[in-house]
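Work Package 3 (structural annotation) set out to generate three-dimensional models for the target panel prioritized at the project kickoff. During this period the team completed the workflow that converts sequence records into discrete structure tokens, so that structures can be stored uniformly alongside our sequence database. As a representative example, we reproduce one entry of 187 residues exactly as it appears in the project archive.
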Amino acid sequence: MMNRTKCLEALAARLTDDEIVVATYSAASEWVEMSDRALNYYSFGAMGLASSHGIGLALARPERRVIVLDGDGSLLMNLGTLVTVGAAAPTNLVHMVFCNGSYEANGGHPLPNPKVDFCAMAKAGGIANVRRIETLEEFEAQLPAILSEEGPIFVEMVIEQGPMGPRKYDDMYKEERRQRMREALGV
């Protein structure tokens, strides 16, 4: 079992300036603090839609890799996106799902079935490149391939429960952040 913060730190160390990161809820609150970059897109308040936002960006910007930082509770709110990703098959999309068996951002309530197999669902939806990672060492070893192989790539990340404390989501939607992203994308 991994620590999400350590995983995000490993990812941040390997990102280039060209990659778009779509983050939601708990991952977003950590990501905004550790990797404040122009190509960060935050999906707070849209539980379950990080993957939908990610596929939209991946299809609109095929020249850029899009990395979605999702949670298991969030993905359960929008499982249909796995079929959409499988059908559209954007080669530049990486969907990382941090699985701790809870709706962490909403108080840590347990998922209805914490043993759900997200990799099996992703495969059934048509995503061929699927992996489950349980240790930080595995993640660090596989990260170069995850960031370079043709997608779509689905990664189930088995993590421990994160902090339940208050998060600063309001900072994510500042006009300056949106403007930086528009400028970085040339829109």
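The radius of gyration is 15 Å.
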